[in-house]
Give the backbone structure.
Amino acid sequence: MKQFNVRINVTTEAYFDTDIEADSHEEAEQIANNLVWNDELTDDLRQHAEIIEERYDATQWFVCECGHGFNENQMTDNEECPACETPIPDDQLEE
Ligand SMILES: [Zn+2]
């Protein structure tokens, strides 16, 4: 098997209502804002969250025979270890 690091980028959106006592619209909205940022609506947020955008970017990692670790962006143009120039084994490269 090959080794990968995958950066996960998920954007979620949540719509739900909560009842708040306040003297004005502005105060009610400010209280709601505070509840969100103070993590007091975490369960509601989680329950109503929908994924609207997702991205997964995989970067392959290699370890050469000498133990140098490096990723696919760091290997040389000749597909060698950037530190010791050992060729990367064929079974680690994409066909
Ligand atoms: Zn090396």
Notes: Strands lie at 3-14, 49-63, 69-71.
